[in-house]
Specification:
The complex is a heterodimer of chains A (about 90) and B (about 250). Chain A has about 90 residues and is an alpha/beta fold. Chain A contains two helices and five strands; from the N terminus they run E-E-E-H-E-E-H. The radius of gyration of chain A is 12 Å and the shape is globular. Chain B contains six helices and 13 strands. Chain B has a nine-stranded mixed sheet, sandwiched between helices. Chain B has a two-stranded antiparallel sheet with strand order 2-5. At the A-B interface, helix 2 of A face helix 4 and strand 9 of B.
Chain lengths: ~90, ~250
């Protein structure tokens, strides 16, 4: 089990609400004694390693042209697939 | 074209908010109920505007709630809906409510499903996205403008620091907010005709309730304002230092 936090970003900048979600998610993971993992979708210039500063142990980055523009359905599918990944359940 | 507009009741904005049962339930005593403003002013009115442009359009209203929601459904019908459906169940869980709406949407052949961007009581903002997923329809949230050309909708939505314009082929689920339509009030003809419009009551389908409320808290009371005379800056400095702890 782990806590997965979706990171919303645009133009290389992580949205403020996502920074809050990262910190909160990392805290929840710490309380549960499980790793905190983050998910970034689409092409991005966000320095992914810096997400680790928020207490995140692993960052998944799915880079596909279909994810470069926000589409609720496509994003939902990608997030659900990541959340259901078998490795994720370990 | 068929439009399904999701409406719900919320306490009037002037209602006194209190809780019962050890702060686990919202007290409904003396509360005046209204149609959730985002459902009424934007979702429903835009649907009515679309009907005015194309009179063949059919507007169905749906609410998930007990019999006490009927006055707000009648008001919505007075504004302009053609027919209303009430799913006879009281449940505050978003997934449960979305499942009820999706069950009606599935067989309804709707081209458009409108919801408010959130309710002004529980502020969940969850129903639209869930209904879209359950109906396997695209979803556009926080919409401020909606234009239709044939079966293609051009929708403007608010994003952090700006707006986004997207195009989508119907059917689609849209959550609506300020700017989507111009709020209006029911006219006498609408009020009279609302009495005879069909209001179908159906029983809920089986669905999971995934969340429950464990505690409600009111925000802390705001501290009173202290006025300091302009000729007494020492007192202002002392208060900022000793009480507000900002200097």
């Amino acid at each position: 089990m782990s806590v997965l936090i979706f990171v919303d970003q645009a133009d290389g900048i992580v949205k403020k609400a996502s920074l809050e979600a990262l910190s909160y998610g990392a805290k929840v993971a710490e309380m549960l004694g499980v790793p905190a993992e983050a998910l970034v979708l689409g092409n991005t210039s966000v320095p992914l390693a810096e997400i680790g500063h928020y207490g995140i142990k692993k960052v998944y980055h799915v880079d596909d042209a279909a994810l470069n523009n926000f589409d609720a359905g496509v994003y939902t599918g990608a997030i659900a697939q990541t959340a259901e990944k078998p490795a994720h359940a370990s | 074209m068929k439009i399904l507009v999701c409406v719900t009741k919320t306490p009037d904005t002037t209602a006194k908010i209190a809780f019962t049962d050890n702060n686990t339930k919202f007290s409904q005593a003396g509360v005046q109920w209204i149609i959730n403003p985002y459902d009424e002013w934007y979702a429903l009115v835009r649907a009515i505007e679309l009907k005015e442009k194309d009179p063949a359009t059919i507007i169905h209203l749906i609410t998930v709630g007990a019999a006490d929601t009927e006055p707000i459904i009648r008001k919505a019908l007075a504004l302009g809906g053609d027919e209303a459906i009430r799913v006879n169940v009281e449940n505050n869980d978003s997934f449960y409510v979305a499942s009820q709406i999706a069950a009606v949407g599935k067989d309804g052949g709707y081209d458009l499903v409108f919801t408010g961007k959130e309710t002004i009581d529980y502020n969940g903002s969850a129903i639209g996205g869930m209904v879209a997923e359950l109906l396997d329809m695209p979803y556009v949230s926080l919409a401020t403008r909606f234009e239709l050309s044939g079966t293609t909708a051009t929708i403007t939505r608010e994003i952090e620091g700006g707006e986004e314009i997207c195009e989508v082929v119907l059917p689609v689920v849209v959550s609506c907010q300020k700017g989507f339509a111009e709020a209006r009030i029911p006219n006498m003809r609408g009020i009279m005709s609302a009495r005879t419009k069909p209001l179908k009551v159906i029983e809920p389908v089986a669905a999971d309730t995934l969340t429950s409320y464990t505690l409600f808290e009111l925000p802390p009371a705001k501290a009173g304002v202290k006025l300091v005379s302009a000729d007494n800056p020492e007192e202002l400095v002392r208060l900022l230092h000793e009480e507000a702890h900002v200097i």
